[in-house]
Amino acid sequence: MSNQPTYTLRQLVLYFLKLGTTGFGGPVALVGYMHKDLVENRKWISEEEYKQGLALAQLAPGPLAAQLGIYLGFVHYGLWGATLAGIAFIIPSFIMVVLLGMAYKLYGGLPWMQAVFYGVGAAVIGIIVNSSYKLTTKSIGKFNLQSFKQNWMLWLLFITAAAITFFTQQEQILLFVAAGLLYMFLKAPPKWFNNKTVNGFVLLQIGFWNYEASTLEKIALFFTKAGAFVFGSGLAIVPFLHAGVVTENHWLTEQQFVDAVAVAMITPGPVVITVGFIGYLVAGFPGASVAALSTFLPCYLFTVIPAPYFKKIAKNQSIKAFVDGITAAVIGALVGAVIVIATRSILDIPTAFIAITTICALIYIKNIREPYIIFIAALLGIFIKLIL
Helix %, strand %, coil % for the chain, to 5? Predict the structure, then answer.
């Protein structure tokens, strides 16, 4: 931990409060904002400190932007800095998704709201497809022969996870762990392995306080598990959430799940905050709070516990290989989940058109942000369902 910060803890908390309120664009954009604001412009954080934080955020499970923010808070102000920076970054978008959850409970059955999410849901599919492609090329390699030859094992894990997720339509945590261990032992086996030694009313209408204790326990367990197995990007949590929320527990319908992902796209801050919206629909405000806390607590712990020792940990090739293997499987599962969701959400020509147009816009229009696409898709949904 560095000495003599050039800023106060209050200034840092206010910065992350502002970033959590106005920072659109997903994890890659948010990470970019932190570098530009804190390293380049304000010079509160050194380039080396930022790179160490980014490396830890990529190595450990947890949403990328939230973990980086927690680490940057830790750099000069320890646990207090990490805790307050994390809370300030997450709380604005949490409040927004709870308010949207209230509106969704109140108006979700009305034709205009259904029309909005008809268009938005299709656009979300396009956004996730594009993000999945970017994640794949960034984490595994480009879709070319050289990459297939060089990273054939990662591609194999990727394809296997995608296929298994698509056909089983369930989360496969053991598959991810097995992928990480397999790649670690093949790529960079740890020393102990080489040595052959192993150690073993309105409030009622909007469902604000509508919950059951047993449901809260299930939410806590499920979202803790989900939060502990998200690597790299908030969208990597989608296959976990889809399998648990829709397929296994039947908390939400397919359409409600797509709408929940859409809500995360139109609010600032970390994409993973969609868990707050899902928790609200399942068990009101207590559900939202438990879901958010359970998801972000592992992220917090995986950041602050190794932070003081990270320089040494980051150089361990076995740990890097383990994370690379898990990442390949998780991204493959994301692709499989996208296919499952798309087959259930793209039901006609208009939704297919909106999804394809969204992908093209993200590829060919520079600097376009997801909230703009979501807004246009909402207008298209209203036009198609209510006017045509």
Answer: 80, 0, 20
How far, in whole angstroms, is CA 276 from its chain's centroid? 12
- CA 31, 297, 72, 141 dihedral sign is negative
Confidence of residue 192 (pLDDT cuts 50, 70, 90): low
Beta strands in the chain (DSSP E): 62-63, 231-232
Closest CA to 226 of 286, 294, 276: 294
159 CB neighbour count, 10 Å cutoff? 15
Mean pLDDT of 209-220: 84
Distance separating alpha carbons of residues 217 and 106, to the nearest angstrom? 26
pTM score of the predicted model: 0.72
Phi first, then psi: give them for residue 166, nearest 5 degrees: -65, -45
Encode pLDDT of 65-116 as tens digits.
899 999 999 999 999 999 999 999 999 999 999 998 998 888 877 788 888 8
- Asked whether the beta carbons of 339 and 238 are under 8 A apart, the reply is no
